[in-house]
Design brief:
With 216 residues, the protein is α/β, with parallel strands linked by helices. It has 9 helices and 8 strands. The N and C termini lie close together (12 Å). Bound molecules: D-xylitol-5-phosphate and zinc ion (ZN). The site of D-xylitol-5-phosphate has 22 residues, from strand 2, strand 8 and helix 8.
């Protein structure tokens, strides 16, 4: 099953309710990008926005933490309504196993994320524990960037390693520059959760863009 997770970073914040309803109706997850201006050179939004979305959302919230010290904020995002929380391996390093356990202890699905310049093998030790893996196909920090084609091989490597350790069911999410034009390639490589910001919210018909990606 392919799931489409529109990234609300590209939503219309003046009319957020309208975009939340669109996701409820046509998509599978709300992808919420949390940026702290330190781990990435950009600041997005925080708890009040996540809580407001949670009130109206009928689809699960998928919170992508691009922050230093993820362990400090995981609990608050769980309380704010996250069903999935992913954190960057580069931000947690040897704390990664502890962060995964912390997220899972809150009853939330735990995902580990890597940027395009981080060797995929770095996250292999955590694959026996995670609930999903997020492969960045652009450098975290901004919406609207171009998909990095080498990401396809990185998805394949993670898929292969998950199969090797007997966990082929663990979903692989891909984030950055994903749209109607490359959805079939990322799905073929092994991703089943597709994040899309501009490809959904800048499309003449978000509904058609979502359906085209899901059926790519
Ligand atoms: C980038 C974010 C993405 C971003 C995707 O740091 O993690 O979720 O919003 O936007 P698009 O789909 O426009 O590349
Ligand atoms: Zn994201």
């Amino acid at each position: 099953m392919i799931q489409i997770a529109p990234s609300l970073l590209s939503a219309d914040f003046l009319h957020l309710e309208k975009d939340v309803e669109m996701v409820n109706q046509y998509a599978d997850l709300f992808h919420l990008d949390i940026m702290d201006g330190t781990f990435v050179p950009n600041i997005s939004f925080g708890f009040p926005v996540v809580e407001a979305i949670a009130k109206k959302a009928t689809k699960p919230l998928d919170v992508h933490l691009m922050i230093v010290n993820p362990q400090k904020y995981v609990e608050r995002f769980a309380k704010a309504g996250a069903a999935f929380i992913s954190f960057h391996y580069e931000a947690a390093l040897e704390q990664s196993a502890a962060v995964i356990e912390q997220i899972q202890a809150l009853g939330v699905k735990a995902g580990i994320v890597i940027n395009p310049d981080c060797p995929v093998e770095k996250i292999f030790p955590y694959l026996p524990k995670v609930d999903f893996v997020l492969i960045m196909s652009v450098f975290a920090g901004f919406g609207g960037q171009k998909f990095i084609p080498e990401s396809l091989d990185r998805i394949r490597s993670v898929k292969k390693e998950l199969a090797r350790i007997g966990r082929p069911e663990v979903p692989i999410e891909v984030d950055g520059g994903v749209g109607v034009g490359n959805a079939s390639a990322v799905i073929e490589a092994g991703a089943t959760m597709l994040v899309a910001g501009s490809a959904v919210f800048k499309a003449p018909s978000p509904q058609e863009a979502i359906e085209a990606m899901r059926n790519a």
